[in-house]
Task: structure prediction
Amino acid sequence: MIDEGETDWKVVCIDVKDELASKLSAHSDIDAAKIKEVFTFLRDYKIPAGKPANTFGFNGALLDKAFALKVTDRTHHEWQALLSGQVDSGKIKLTHTTPLSTSNGLVSQGDAEKVVVDHCLQYLRSKI
Result:
């Protein structure tokens, strides 16, 4: 998905406890109407906030598991390089709760929860 000019990868998955899980093992097993519903939601969900509709690469095709795994692996390595300082983080805040051997920005779970709650409260107060 292209969200305001930036790539925003999405992975379609299903909970293994869902009654349909045993029937869905590939993207081609998903009903075309459900795929259209998901793409419509992803395209339009920011419009009520005054943002433009999102667009899609790959001619709007839902790509297969192999492609998703390749992208996930690549972005995971990019994330590790960012947190370990191998690449310049620029203005990106590196606060996280995942311990890596050479990690910048590690905080405790409690501190992370406090940051999220504080930001949510600040946002809600700004709307009152």
Observations:
- The helical segments are 32-44, 65-84, 109-127.
- The radius of gyration is 18 Å.
- The mean pLDDT is 90.
